[in-house]
Design a protein that fits this description.
5-stranded mixed beta sheet, mainly beta
Length: about 1000
């Protein structure tokens, strides 16, 4: 498409536009603007300023890193989310592999800049907002963005709320899509893992054409990708069964260290307190004499549990009968993605152009996790499935009820099918208003619809009624509730309801496969729970700019201003049975809300000095935005940026900003609902507990406070499941406030052609951070408080009394165990990230080949979290923890020689701790290994373009050395997602343009 609209501008105007849009500009483009001061510039060039990767991030005041379309295609990526998580500036908070750890998040690709949270990274598409993808949140699922439609991605660090509005606390990720396309292009790719049955496939088709004497261009793109579900047990790393055990060679006369560790790993081992077929214990379990624990064989008979190795605790053992939990966990969910994108540009005349962007995306995610489990099942003596041998054992021990812990795999693994449909449309006009003024006005509508089906969601009372089987007067096996309307559920202590008794189907739970032998019972007590959500976003924006508002001795002052109105709405309708707490799924009620915001903003670029010794050029960027929210009232954000070109090859840049983030709909309006948390009890003396009293900074204080709670010294918690609690929103929340600043140097020496180096220091401090004090923190701070146990943390934790406690859902908690916690959103916390980014970009010739090498690395200096900002000395420093390695880096090398192309990409993760730094400092020998070594991954690709043809074929290998992740890391959380869990992966593909 030939560009007809032109806007006169000079070098200072270019600086203004860069401040507005945070783009990239190459030195060649900057020199062209300077040498042709006042020359006409194409409108497209104003909006999308430069794309050469060798010049990435070398103009704007804030640090900017970009990924181009060629780089994206060169990785063989089939979805953009996992590729972006590879960047050192972004934490892998939501990859496909770890997206299944929360309810309803399977398949999401949410970006987390500097590890400050997905809600604090603003994701834009062509500089405009995009509708969110998760109920109650504005976080954008970048997996809905088509890979082939991307021209480049720009990542800017630092608070830029003054430019873009709320959420840009850590920075902005801007996806710049193709604005026009001529011709047709077809691409296909298929790959498979070296180990296990895991495949990925991708196909795309793009077509476009100019029309109306090249005044307009219309183009569309269709894209489809798919990948298989990949089970943890499908890889050897999922069949190692490594568990932590006390070190038999530990020397207590010497301080713990890596040479003298208290705990080591051994195999094969696992959890022996539960099994697929059921486990029961006669009397109290004694780890030193484990002869009274039994398990059921597949045929329903029972035997003593086997213990040929170390019995670590009532839940963990080595060389014994244990449950294989890895067999019911996935490394990757099944994921299908389809997207259709359309764009239209049309020049109405020499001064005005219309544009339209349309998008439809559908993703389907499927995964299976653990089944429903019971700790315990209560089976009465008269149960119809109790064998004479089992009955005799119960009678001999005076038992009227048998308590069986069971991992109910044969009743169906729980899973999720999540369908997300996203629609987005942007319509607008842009152009000239007179000689110096330009404008843009647009409307932007987005909608996300999410249907989540929770598979094999157990209806608890029906499960209880079905396993409570007896014989009727004719000797038939029936449900007790079917013949006795006053029958009491032994798990809840209440009468069975008609919902459970009507149509009740009895079944046995004795032995793995017992439940599956009665499929009609499974169909009766399991259900598929449907949860439907809709998010809507409406944005109306208009802005004007003048590149020559007036002149100063150093150049022209640029100015821009505008208004924006945005409305966000979210509604989630949950399954009625689940909402009432009648199923195994969390009891989450329906929820929703909305807010709107009206904003005005202004920006200016002021040339300060030029053509002086040591000041080739110096300009100041200023930006401010005033926002008026219907939810929280008024906020103000601002940005200051300085560009100082010392000489034409050396540039200083710096920014100072105040950013804000308004609370999301979920944070404000979510009702209090049931949630679950894994808690390492600080009063649990189990030697392998990473939070045992021995690991406390003040052991004596913790022991005293645990004793004050009535917990005896040496107590070992035998409850191994996650613990129920309550979490929810708070309509009285206020905005988060952040202060960020960056300082950097950019060097492009004229004596090394093609070399560019940048180094940037960045510092982001967030105050009034929104969040709930997590259950682990509540439990730990309760007993680590110097003032005793009469504190607010202990008030949020409930423990079982002497004798234990059975909750209304039938969960059996041993004495002193944590039974409940409460955590509501508040503006309590503080967060800080400090680091240095280094980027080296070099274009050169290598034995006749055109080569590009690019190093991008982040050195993390601080990663601090304050649970309570009012206590400035009480923070966790997470640098060197496995979630925050000190160094993350990539080195990408690409080569072109004639029709051949090749790339060699490396990813580096620095060595890190498997425990939090404060725990390591308190006891560096608590376990071995306590550190993970440094990792370097190698990805290779080779391509060939046939002569006189537009056909390109390529093949590639990811993780070429087949490097396995650290011990027991499966990519299921933020930290372990730094490591590849798939193993060596081969792919091949072809692209044909016609």
């Amino acid at each position: 498409m030939n560009d007809r609209i032109v806007i006169p501008r000079n070098r200072l105007t270019a600086a203004l536009v860069m401040a507005l849009l945070a783009p990239l500009a190459s030195p060649a483009l900057a020199q062209e603007s300077g040498s042709q001061d006042g020359a006409p510039t194409q409108l497209d060039q104003v909006i999308v300023t430069g794309s050469r990767i060798a010049r990435t991030g070398f103009i704007t005041p804030a640090p900017v890193t970009a990924v181009t379309a060629e780089e994206i295609r060169g990785t063989g990526a089939t979805n953009i989310g996992d590729l972006m998580a590879r960047m050192p500036a972004l934490s892998p908070t939501y990859t496909l592999g770890n997206s299944t750890r929360f309810i309803g998040t399977a398949g999401l690709g949410l970006l987390d800049l500097r590890g400050m949270g997905t809600s604090r990274t603003l994701v834009l598409v062509n500089g405009r907002r995009h509708v969110g993808a998760s109920p109650g949140s504005t976080a954008v699922d970048v997996n809905t963005i088509p890979v082939e439609w991307i021209e480049r991605v720009e990542v800017m660090t630092g608070g830029v709320s003054g430019v873009y509005g709320a959420d840009a606390v850590a920075g902005v990720v801007n996806f710049i899509l193709k604005k026009d396309f001529e011709g047709m292009e077809l691409r296909g790719q298929h790959g498979m893992a070296d180990e296990g049955s895991f495949d990925r496939s991708f196909v795309s088709f793009t077509a476009g054409k100019n029309f109306a004497d090249d005044r307009g261009n219309a183009a569309f793109s269709l894209e489809y990708s798919t990948q298989d579900r990949f089970g943890r047990g499908d890889r050897e790393i999922g069949r190692r069964f490594m568990v932590s055990v006390p070190n038999p060679d530990f020397d207590p006369s010497q301080p713990p260290s890596q040479r003298n560790p208290q705990n080591v790993f051994a195999r094969p081992g696992g959890n022996h307190s539960i099994s697929y077929g059921g486990v029961f214990t006669i009397g109290s379990f004694n780890v030193n004499n484990p002869t009274n624990r039994y398990l059921f064989n597949p045929d329903g008979t029972f035997r003593r549990a086997r213990y040929d190795g170390v019995v670590v605790s009532p839940t963990s053992c080595v060389d014994c009968d244990f449950a294989d939990l890895n067999a019911v966990a996935d490394l990757e969910p099944a994921f299908d993605r389809f997207s259709a994108n359309f764009q239209l540009n049309f020049e109405l005349n020499e001064n005005h152009r219309m544009f339209f962007e349309g998008k439809y995306s559908k993703t389907e995610s499927n995964f299976y996790g653990q089944p429903a489990f019971d700790q315990p099942i209560r089976i009465r003596r008269d149960n119809a499935f109790i064998s004479p041998e089992l009955g005799a054992l119960m009678d001999a021990n005076g038992l009227t009820q048998l308590q069986v812990t069971r991992f109910n795999v044969d009743a169906g693994r729980r899973g999720e099918d999540v369908d997300r449909q996203t629609v987005r449309a942007v319509f607008g006009f842009e152009g000239n208003l007179g000689e110096d003024w330009t404008y843009e006005a647009s409307v932007n509508y987005g909608q996300s619809k999410i249907d989540r089906r929770n598979l094999n969601n157990r209806i608890n009372e029906r499960w209880h009624a079905g396993l409570d089987a007896v014989r009727d007067e004719n000797g038939n096996i029936v449900c007790r509730a079917s013949i006795d309307e006053d029958a009491v559920n032994p798990h809840t202590g209440t009468r069975y309801s008609s919902f459970a008794s009507n149509g009740c189907i009895p079944f046995s739970v004795f032995g793995d496969g017992a439940v599956a032998r009665t499929p009609e019972a499974i169909a009766w007590f399991n259900t598929t729970s449907l949860n439907s959500s809709t998010l809507e976003q409406n944005v109306v924006a208009a802005s004007v700019a003048n590149s020559r508002l007036f002149s100063l001795p150093a150049g022209d002052v640029g100015f821009a201003a505008g208004v924006e109105y945005r409305k966000e709405k979210s509604q989630e309708n949950t399954d009625p049975l689940a909402a009432l707490g009648l199923t195994f799924l969390n009891a989450i009620p329906s929820r929703g809300g909305e807010y709107d915001v009206t904003e005005v903003f202004a920006e200016t670029t002021i040339p300060l000095l030029a053509d002086l010794p040591g000041i080739y050029n110096m300009s100041l960027d200023l930006a401010a935005r005033h926002s008026d929210y219907s939810s929280i009232g008024e906020t103000l954000a601002w940005n200051i940026g300085l560009n100082w070109e010392i000489i034409d090859t050396l540039r200083f840049r710096g920014t100072l900003a105040r950013a804000v983030r308004a609370p999301s709909i979920g944070e404000l309006y979510n009702p209090q609902s049931e949630n679950f948390a894994t808690i390492n009890d600080p009063c649990n003396y189990q030697p392998t507990n990473p939070n045992r009293p021995d690991t406390a900074e003040d052991r004596a204080l913790r022991v005293a406070n645990c004793s004050a709670l009535g917990i005896p010294e040496g107590w070992i918690d035998t409850f191994s499941a996650s613990r129920p609690g309550v979490s929810g929103g708070n309509p009285d929340l206020e905005e988060e406030r952040a202060r960020s600043w960056t300082l950097g140097l950019v060097w492009q020496p004229d004596f090394i052609n093609g070399l560019g180096v940048s180094v940037d220091y960045w510092n982001i401090t967030l105050k009034d951070a929104i969040g709930a004090v997590n259950a682990q923190t509540l439990a730990t701070r309760c007993v680590d408080s110097p003032g005793g146990i009469g504190n607010q943390f202990c008030a949020m934790i409930t423990r079982a009394p002497v004798g234990g406690y059975v909750d209304p859902q039938g969960r059996d908690f041993p004495a002193y165990s944590i039974t409940r916690w409460v955590a509501l959103n508040e503006n309590l916390a503080k967060s800080r990230r400090v680091g240095v980014d280094l980027e080296i970009d070099y274009r050169y010739n290598l034995f006749g080949a055109s080569a590009v090498s690019r190093f991008v690395g982040t050195r993390l200096l601080q990663s601090r979290e304050w649970q309570f900002q009012d206590f400035p000395d009480e923070f966790d420093e997470n640098v060197t923890y496995y979630t925050d390695p000190r160094w993350r880096a990539t080195l990408d090398n690409s080569f072109e020689f004639g029709n051949w192309s090749a790339s060699w990409n490396m990813k580096y993760v620095d060595g890190n701790l498997r425990v939090q730094p404060k725990s390591y400092n308190a006891n560096p020998g608590s376990a071995r290994p306590i550190m993970n070594g440094s990792y370097t991954y190698h990805n290779l690709r080779l391509g060939y373009t046939f002569p006189e043809s537009e056909l390109n074929v390529y093949l590639g290998i990811d993780n070429a050395s087949d490097k396995a992740p650290p011990l027991n890391y499966f990519g299921a959380d933020i930290g372990s997602a730094n490591y590849d869990s798939i193993g060596r992966f081969f792919y091949m593909g072809a692209t044909y343009r016609f």
